[in-house]
Amino acid sequence: MLKIKKLILHEKIILAWYFLFFLALLNSCSQEKVVKNESIKNEKTVTRTAEQLVDSKKNAEMSYRELMNILGSGTTMVQLGILMENKQMIIEGSGLILNHAAPNEDPWLIMNKQDQEEFKNSLLSYDIILDNYAREIAEKAKEEDWLEVNKKTYELINSCVVCHSLWRHKVK
Ligand code: HEC
Q1: Residue 25 — very low, low, confident or very high, per pLDDT cuts 50/70/90?
Q2: pTM
């Protein structure tokens, strides 16, 4: 009788191992899917046009300049949050940069015709750069790594200023 009980226990353990193995297999498959999906998403962001970028965002009744003022408030909020060590303030400030709507008039129309194509390229590449910094800033804030948040914020604002040095004087 004892032997049979032992055998049943043995079988149960083996079954449990099979089950765990199956779970691990399922998990690794789904992780692979996530990785694949992300690389597809990245390709999309790289190959899309400025028109698709604007279409992908909520349109709002505002000018490009008004959008810039929102980005300005976002960075100010992040900077204050760093000084106050208020991580929610940093997360919400970077959220303003990450989730901003698009102006209802195509942004490239603020440039002269001959500059519009190049400005579209800047819009596309800087959108990815700003989003990545904003995401990193929020992540580091969650970890309360203030020095790293500050470093990334410097880099974020630096990319704003680089784009300004390229384009602000060309606005018609
Ligand atoms: C794709 C290029 C580009 C990027 C990136 C960019 N800006 Fe701008 N920004 C402009 C242009 C062009 C203007 C001038 C708009 C105008 O005069 O109509 C401007 C103007 C501004 C202004 C002044 C608005 C006013 O009322 O005169 C602020 C503030 C501003 N940007 C903040 C930011 C911040 C903060 C970031 C980064 C988080 C940023 N910008 C990123 C192109 C850019």
Answers
A1: low
A2: 0.78
CB–CB of 135/94 below 8 Å? yes
Give me the pLDDT at residue 144, please.
98
Q: How far is the CA of 67 from the centre of ligand 1 (A)?
A: 8
Annotated domain spans of the chain: 1-47, 49-170
Mean residue pLDDT across the chain: 85
Looking from the CA of residue 126, the nearest atom of ligand 1 is 5
DSSP state string for 135-172: HHHHHHHHTT-HHHHHHHHHHHHHHHHHHHHHHGGGB-
- Distance, CA 119 to ligand 1 centroid (Å)? 13
The CA 1 to ligand 1 mean position distance, Å, reads 81
For the record, the structure tokens of 55 come out as 């279409």
Cα distance between residue 45 and residue 127, in whole Å: 9
